[in-house]
Amino acid sequence: MTTLTVNGIGRTVSSTPDTPLLYVLRDELELNGAKFGCGLGQCGACAVLVDGEPVFSCITPVMLLEGRDIRTLEGLGTAEAPGPLQAAFIEEQTAQCGYCIAGMIMRAQALLERIPHPGDDDILTALEPQLCRCGTHMRIVRAVRRAAQNMARASEAGR
Question: Which Pfam families does this chain map to (predicted)?
């Protein structure tokens, strides 16, 4: 048994220690935001945050994650109350097929936590490991820009 902290909640899983996190998230914890894309850590559809950094969950065994903070798309918001990035991705209509979007959002979340006001070069560099076969990259960049602006406005209004 392994205990993982996923979206702030301690969860005990029964998968073997070498099981990739993606399978544990989807099969045991029923968190289906992260997608299986290539299974080789090359496309990014499976990206989640571990201690605030994006990782390919399809190649990360759970034995490396005990005591670490794992965040998935589900930890950022819900369909009824989407988080700032999720809302911006919806507003910019970034999804064509939608397969890459969860990974894109997670990598963008890590960027915005590190650099609250990123420039386009920062955004492009952060999203570089993610593949979008539909070619909606420009809408995705606009969504990250929009989320950064909305988050800055919300932060200023909260002061």
Answer: Fer2, Fer2_2
Half-sphere exposure (CA, 13 Å, Cβ side) for 5? 9
For residue 29, the domain's CATH number is: 3.10.20.30
Helix (H) or strand (E) holding 71: strand 69-71
Angle, nearest 10°, between helix axes 101-114 and 84-91? 130
Question: Average of pLDDT values for 109-130?
Answer: 96
Query: How many domains is the chain partitioned into structurally?
Result: 2
Q: How many beta carbons lie within 10 A of that of residue 59, not counting itself?
A: 15
- pLDDT tens-digit series, residues 30-57: 999 999 999 999 999 999 999 999 999 9
In this structure, are 58 and 94 located in the same domain?
A: no
Determine the Cα–Cα distance for residues 108 and 87; give it in Å rounded to an integer: 13
111/105 Cα distance (integer angstroms) = 10
Q: How far apart are CA 134 and CA 41, in angstroms?
A: 19
